[in-house]
Amino acid sequence: MFTANSPEQQEQAIAYSRDDGYTWTLYANNPVIAINSKNFRDPKVIYHADSGNWVMVLAYATEFTIGVFTSPDLTTWTPASNFSYAGLLGLQYECPNLVQMPYKNASTGETISTVWLLYISINPGAPLGGSVGQYFAGDFNGTHFTPLDNAARIADFGKDNYATQFFYRNDDFGTEDAVSMAWASNWQYTNYVPTGPAEGWQSAASLPRRNWVQDSVRGGYVLASYPYDLDVVLGRELGSSENLVNDTLVATADASNTTGAFAISANITGLNTTLLSNTASLNITIRSSATGETLTSGQTFAGDATFWMDRGNTTAFDNPFFTDKVSTALVLQDAWELLMVVDRSVWEVFLLGGERSATQTFFAEGMMNEVEVSVAALNEGSVVSVKVWELKSTWAEMEEGMGDVRGNVSAIG
After folding, report:
1. Domain with 258 in it: what CATH number?
2. Residue 245: inside a domain, yes or no?
3. Cα gap 33→24, rounded to integer Å
4. Largest alpha-carbon pair distance within the chain?
5. pLDDT score recorded for residue 412
6. CB of 336 within 8 A of CB of 350?
7. Is 95 helix (H, G, I), strand (E, B) or coil?
8. pLDDT value at position 174?
9. pLDDT in tens, 33-70
10. Where is the Glycosyl hydrolase family 32 N-terminal domain (predicted)?
């Protein structure tokens, strides 16, 4: 199902494929839902096993309403309920998703039960400007979604994570982690960002992520996410340390690394936040040795325990809305965990096992090829382990002689 857009209105239509998605045929009785509105879009359909119906969520964009529709056959749709004026409004709601996923114990990772999540994107009007995604954990009975609390929660503390879509499966996700991808950009500047000579297009998607809701300390029903099976693209280990307490690790990729992509993991145990000074920190610098451009980030461990990211020292793009820095405050116990993935122009970080995540795009003149991780002023008894890998190209098997990737080529018939 998709939104058919014309100057007069937006209406919901169906197309079907008989060749695994290579060609599509429009349904003869389109549109299947039309209300004579110019801001009525973004259908997302799931099958609800308990009620035996198909369920669609749909945005009445400028009315700040998500409509729930039901159908026995995907062609005849009945309005069932509305979810309105909740959380951050911005100037319009977009791209809703309704998905069931695990509800886990944040400390043990064990699944307690399942919970429904209503995900709504807003644009413009994000706290950092432009577009952003927010979510509500709740119950769904086949027709009505009821949130478990009144909190407005942002899905990603970076500036470039929007319009998240969850992959649909024939059965409910239930106790399996739900999988999603987001558009890694922001409507404030997406039409102006550059593109590299190998790509030939603007914008990209985030990493695919596993998602679940957990009972986080002082956070309540937090949507956690973590990269989906990153192991398949891990390349050579460029550097590691099993005890980097108050020391520095430098890892450099050699000339054979043409991806400019890295994964960095850091784990700290034995923290005692009552003993730490204001200088206790872990800092990461990702550098292009050719141009001196850097991405910098770090975690402070005392006080508000703030993690920050700064893309301001990359020089291939300048725009007043392309703000340099983002940050988030954490509630720390005696351990801390980070996974960071740096791709050609997308920078993602996952903290505390996925409790917080951020997506930032960047545009550098030179390829990133150095990683420096430094740790300072941690308490005695703390243990710091760090690893840095280069990432393999996911395009390699599809590249032509000049390095171009032209997408799927198929012969039908």
Report:
1. 2.60.120.560
2. yes
3. 20
4. 71
5. 36
6. no
7. strand
8. 62
9. 999 999 999 999 999 999 999 999 999 999 999 999 99
10. 2-215
